[in-house]
Amino acid sequence: MKIAVLPGDGIGTEIVAEAVKVLQALDLKFEMESALVGGAAYDAHGHPLPESTLKLAKEADAILFGAVGDWKYDKLDRPLRPEQAILGLRKNLGLFANFRPAICYEQLVGASSLKPELIAGLDILIIRELTGDIYFGQPRGRRVATDGHFPGAEEAFDTMRYSRPEIERIAHVAFQAARKRSKKVTSVDKANVLETFQFWKDVMTEVGQQYPDVELQHMYVDNAAMQLVKAPKAFDVVVTGNMFGDILSDEASMLTGSIGMLPSASLNSSNQGLYEPSHGSAPDIAGKGIANPLATILSAAMMLRFSLNQEAAAQRIEAAVQKVLAQGLRTGDIYSEGTTKVGTAQMGDAVVKALG
Ligand SMILES: NC(=O)c1ccc[n+]([C@@H]2O[C@H](COP(=O)([O-])OP(=O)(O)OC[C@H]3O[C@@H](n4cnc5c(N)ncnc54)[C@H](O)[C@@H]3O)[C@@H](O)[C@H]2O)c1
Ligand SMILES: CC(C)[C@H](C(=O)O)[C@@H](O)C(=O)O
Ligand SMILES: [Mg+2]
């Protein structure tokens, strides 16, 4: 078993170091190999996703990814920007199914900006389609408008699109996930305005007929954004497109206390997976040793479960995370009065110790 370790930029290197520490402490037999990705790879090799990094990722059984990006690269041509590395990995490996579980651990009920009763016991699963939508649709670009409100003016455009097979396969992922949970799927769309999402809704409904035991609810994305903070526990599995899933998962992260708590798994059809926290490289706190490594450590647990067939080890990590939270240890993002503030490495060390 081989794990490709791609720390990336900013806090990516700090949080991945802690997840690696935890994986090594498990004493399982897998090989880990690291490579540069994102801005770090651009600086060293002139490209955010060098051939050698892509090759390592393709050959690995699983990929542990940190985060990419920094404001200093924002002026580069788009194909050279760090974010293209993660988009390129998702596309090249066909990682279409993105699982972003938002679980509010008992000990963190007070860390959320929402009232405790709204989020206590929260456990929802956002399933985000990850290789289609406006993120990858062509054509896109800039040009001089020949029509619209301002003919002759400069304009920019992107293309939102989904094909039937793309919607069908993510629908099956969602219904099958719901079967193992409370048998309820909320499909989030914008069918009242966008043809792409009317099609999404139609195909979801069709696939749903193959799962009569699962309740399917449709919701417009604007309403979903509101309901997520009004009554988050009314959701169980949420399935949506690439862009809406990006936005709603960041929103859902605050239900758990912090974006530093939200792990993710991105799987392809052969269960090869990329595992990364849902957050970014956090340039505002990078290099300070204060980032929360738990989303990355929990992503490593998802990796053991989904790609490496090590359920017991995954549960050991999850139990260790709960234990350190119960001990009152908190990084700054989840700190509240009466708890103990720790840095990134101290949190990683505590999880290792709690593995027992
Ligand atoms: N998958 C990825 O690699 C990924 C994901 C999102 C954003 N990005 C990139 O990251 C850069 C920064 O983007 P952004 O600021 O919009 O989003 P971000 O997620 O990096 O940060 C948003 C806020 O959350 C905080 N935060 C994030 N992770 C944290 C953690 N583990 N512990 C404590 N606090 C944490 C940050 O300090 C910041 O205040 C951009 O270049 C963006 O493109 C990359
Ligand atoms: C960095 C960016 C390309 C990425 C996305 O938009 O998918 C990030 O926000 C995420 O959520 O993983
Ligand atoms: Mg995002």
What key phrases describe this protein's structure?
356 residues, alpha/beta, Isopropylmalate Dehydrogenase, 10-stranded mixed sheet, two-stranded antiparallel sheet, 18% strand, binds nicotinamide-adenine-dinucleotide, binds 3-isopropylmalic acid, binds magnesium ion, magnesium ion binding, branched-chain amino acid biosynthesis, NAD binding
Structure notes:
This protein is α/β, with parallel strands linked by helices and 356 residues long. It has a domain at 1-103 and 264-356: 3-Layer(aba) Sandwich (Isopropylmalate Dehydrogenase), CATH 3.40.718. It is 39% helix and 18% strand. The protein contains twelve helices and 14 strands. The chain has helices at 11-25, 39-45, 51-59, 83-93, 116-119, 164-179, 195-208, 221-230, 242-253, 294-306, 311-326, 344-354; strands at 2-8, 31-34, 62-67, 97-103, 123-129, 141-144, 154-157, 184-189, 215-220, 237-240, 265-267, 273-275, 329-330, 340-341. The strands form three sheets. A ten-stranded mixed β-sheet has the order 2-1-3-12-11-4-5-10-8-9, with helices on both faces. A two-stranded antiparallel ribbon has the order 6-7. It is globular and about 65 Å long. Magnesium ion binds at residues 246, 250.
Along the chain, the helix and strand elements come as: EHEHHEHEHEEEHEHEHEHEEHHEEH
Provide the CATH top-level class of the domain at 1-103 and 264-356. Answer: Alpha Beta
Number of strands: 14
Strand residue percentage: 15-25%
Class of secondary structure makeup: alpha/beta
Enumerate the distinct ligands: nicotinamide-adenine-dinucleotide, 3-isopropylmalic acid, magnesium ion
Fraction of helical residues: 25-40%
Strand order of the largest sheet: 2-1-3-12-11-4-5-10-8-9
Architecture of the domain at 1-103 and 264-356, CATH level 2? Answer: 3-Layer(aba) Sandwich
Number of helices: 12
Main sheet makeup: 10 strands, mixed
On the 0 to 100 scale, the average pLDDT is 97
Q: Determine the N-to-C terminus distance.
A: 24 Å
